[in-house]
Amino acid sequence: MTDVTHPLHLTVQHPHPGLALALATIVGDVDVHTAPTLRSGALEIIQQGHPRLVLDLAPVGFCDSAGLSAIIGIWHAAQEAGGSLSLAAVPDRLMRMLSMTGVDSLLPVHATTADAVAALTDSPPASANR
User: Fold this and answer.
1) Contact 24, 11 (CB under 8 A)
2) Distance CA 75, CA 52 (A)
3) What are 10-23's pLDDT values in tens digits?
């Protein structure tokens, strides 16, 4: 039997260089094997001074409970750093999981990355509103 691994790739853009905002595109499946990569990559972005983070999930083919846990952990880390986490272009299957677990009521979910970035650049960080 051959083990098939699906690597997870995280690419980062800084759409507004003057702001502490990053857009991370996630490519691949987010599961028990790759969720730690997602979490550590996102935490590194936050620690590098970009606590306002948008995750572009359009290229994600699959996400299990370990992936959901990683997203929640990233959200907590962003809040602790005085920032926020937003999700963009969430695939239908993952959106159903976010809805069923109530996570969609905690995190802003946007149809596109442009919408998510615009929402963050037009408003103060979520922690300032609490």
Assistant:
1) yes
2) 10
3) 999 999 888 899 99
